[in-house]
Amino acid sequence: MRRGVYFDGWFPGQHCYHPSLPPRRLRMVDDLVDYRADMLVWAAMGGGSLGLPYLEQEAFGPVDPRARFYGFVNDSEFIAECHRHGIAVFGIVFEAQGWEFPVELDEDETTILALNELRGVGRRDWLGLREFSANRYPRLWKPVEHYFPDGLVNSDGESVTDLIDECVARDIHQQPCHAKWVECPDRDHQCYYMDRNNPVWREYLKAVIRIQIDAGVDGVQLDEAELPMGAFQYGACFCRDCMRLFRTYLKELPPDLRDPALDGVDLDTFHYGDWLLARGHDFKTDRESAPLFGDYYRFQCRTIKRYFGELAEYAREYAREQGRNVLISGNFFNCDPSYLALVDDVDVVVTEMRNTTYRQPQWYRYVAGFAAGKDVVVVENPYGGVVPELVEQLRKGRGYDLFRLSLYEGAAFGANMSVPYGAWMGATIEDSFHPPHDLAAEVQNFLADHEHLYSHDSWHEVCVVFGVASTRDLIRRADVSDNITNARNDSVRVPYRVVTEGLSAAAVPFDVAVFADGDVAPDRVDAKTLTRYERIVLPDCHVLTPRQVEVLETCVNAGVVVVVTDRFAENLPADMRDRLLRRPGVRRAVAEDVPAVAGAAQVTVSTGAADVAVNVARLSGDSAAVHLVNYAYDAEIDAVRHHTDVSLRVRLPVATSGRVVYHAPGIPSFDLPVRRDGMTVEVSIPRVGVYGIVELRGDA
Length: 700
Prior knowledge:
Mean pLDDT: 95
Radius of gyration: 27 Å
Number of helices: 21
């Protein structure tokens, strides 16, 4: 498991300004060593979306003696210092962001007197992508031809002298969109929402990647990986390149798969935006019901895969040309199914959770299934969650157990919840997230000292299916989001969530299998993987591929109990669907009742399921680690209430005969007396605090 740090390094008591991260200091590396960090995300050289010369200054620029006095270094020097301690640094490519900042210059336009935060000196102007691409400041910045000797040429063969006007995402009325979640409303700067479907923007991003790799990064992190689908929230994108690509997509569809609404339409001249406006749709109000929305969604999912993959491969190829290898990651946000096809292109899944709460084991189990065995690093989100509240509590010396829970929970359920280090607090709160140093180091030391107890594999008997085609539209309606609100509409019932939240609350450990639709992501459902489970739950999987039904039949033939809730495979022929449903091994259930009907409990904990959630990791040599997370936080005493004399009963598919050892933060590990009955193990734990791990060793 990775030990990541969310290393924005933004200042306390000040706005978290994108895209440029604050200068780095050697003392920061000392802190990272204390955190046993091995990977930094959102960590270095974000200034490419301001201008390539600015990015070069971040990477290689001179540091004046006064700053050297306090250990300040440029980003390439910081990366080299991290390498001395085995810490991998990821450069951050803010793909969706195109910035313009107010600037104050001397009369000769050779010196920046103020940028972003102005002082009322010199001559005021603007500095950003527009000025870079127009060579507006020849005495201040290298010309665009230094980076692109042949200039930048768009898909119409025209020379580009305004990157923002050329590459911005546009709504249906052709108005440019802004990335509002990073613009500070009390500052006079502008962040435009850029479109990766534009080949000019991809060429620019490749230049950003080259500079980062030249500066020594270990990995390239492509933020806003869903570009430009995130612009849906602003009624976009209807730029020239999106419309051209969508025309091509529609023309390449077999005639029998084209929407009847296109009958008689000349696809050589078709413009989706104009066509929608003529029918009274603005792509904002009731967007999902707009004609051809399903086609447009699938089209954009495919462009996401194509162009994210293009940049990922370019980074790897460029690094190889320099005699190096780099890792690739992105920002998969809430791991929406639209990101699913990108998993193949990354080495580690980095995700900025949509909502950060104090208890969400079911979300971590979904992300672990989504990542399909790859490492996961999670960062918190200040919008629509508990982060501002937790930061305020920590500032007052409270909430320490809540912070411990936030890190231990991720590790226990299959992901690394990164340590925030000057982490993002959004564009309105003038602060950043700096938890108490000793508290963060305490948690990280425990995780590092016990890393052998974490695994991507489990011994779970229950597997829950996330049916992409069946569930994504429900979740889209349930999750109200504009990158700032991140609210949840609980009036929309999502059976998948009902099942997984119910299992988590009942301390029933489970895995998640993602059944892709075979369109926006490949259908890779594998019978060998699924037949190892005792029970497979399909919550409202009303759209399945024939192959998925065949795999489920194989599972039933192998003795697996299949539990079906709500609708099932309604898109397939009735005989195929009914043949499976009639099998003795298939049970019908209400989603709310799944914890009770899914079968005999694999794990029982005497404290009661309401307080404790459980995950059973499969270790080497048929060993196991039972992770126990205790959510019994009491606000009055500002601590998690410990449970005493806890009885734990665990059933595994193999018999263990070795020692049973209990590990918990703050105390030495010790052996537990054990009672065995075949493959069932029973132990009594004297005390369970915030977090504990029962290690069942496979041999004596």
